[in-house]
């Protein structure tokens, strides 16, 4: 006797196959189904995600100036943020030569993603002292790269 099985592996792959019980495995008439890999794309964004990753890889040499890339799913627009005019022009050149079909905006920002992450790490390591709350989300917003936090009350007493 066989049983159909669907297994989700990670966020993007589904494996479909069949389980065969011991008794059925002994029968010569049982044919096994070949495992199939089917990409799971619930957002319809898989191809664009691959392209964003490719462009991010091309921009790695500019990491010190990288203000992070932002994706607007509704506008299907990638925003590349850099901290200097020279880095922004270099990013434009790299993306221009990449032959991407994606709509890309370029914005100059004050702080790099690394600087904002370092600030977040420094601020949030002692958040119980200054907020008495647990931070549930943190983000930077373009074009000013303002740092935002949302906090939620905790049930434990913050350390003094």
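Sequence proposed for the structure above (160 residues):
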């Amino acid at each position: 006797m066989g049983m159909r099985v669907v297994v989700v592996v990670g966020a993007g792959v589904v494996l479909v196959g069949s389980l065969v019980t011991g008794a059925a495995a002994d029968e010569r008439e049982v044919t096994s189904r070949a495992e199939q890999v089917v990409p799971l794309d619930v957002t319809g964004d898989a191809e664009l995600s691959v392209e964003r990753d490719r462009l991010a890889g091309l921009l790695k040499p500019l990491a010190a100036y990288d203000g992070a890339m932002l994706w607007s799913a509704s506008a299907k627009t990638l925003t590349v943020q850099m901290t200097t005019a020279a880095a922004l022009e270099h990013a434009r050149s790299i993306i221009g030569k990449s032959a991407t079909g994606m709509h890309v905006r370029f914005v100059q920002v004050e702080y790099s993603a690394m600087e904002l992450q370092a600030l977040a790490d420094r601020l949030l390591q002692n958040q119980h002292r200054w907020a008495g709350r647990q931070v549930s989300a943190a983000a930077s917003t373009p074009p000013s790269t303002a740092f935002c936090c949302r906090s939620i009350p905790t049930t434990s007493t913050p350390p003094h």
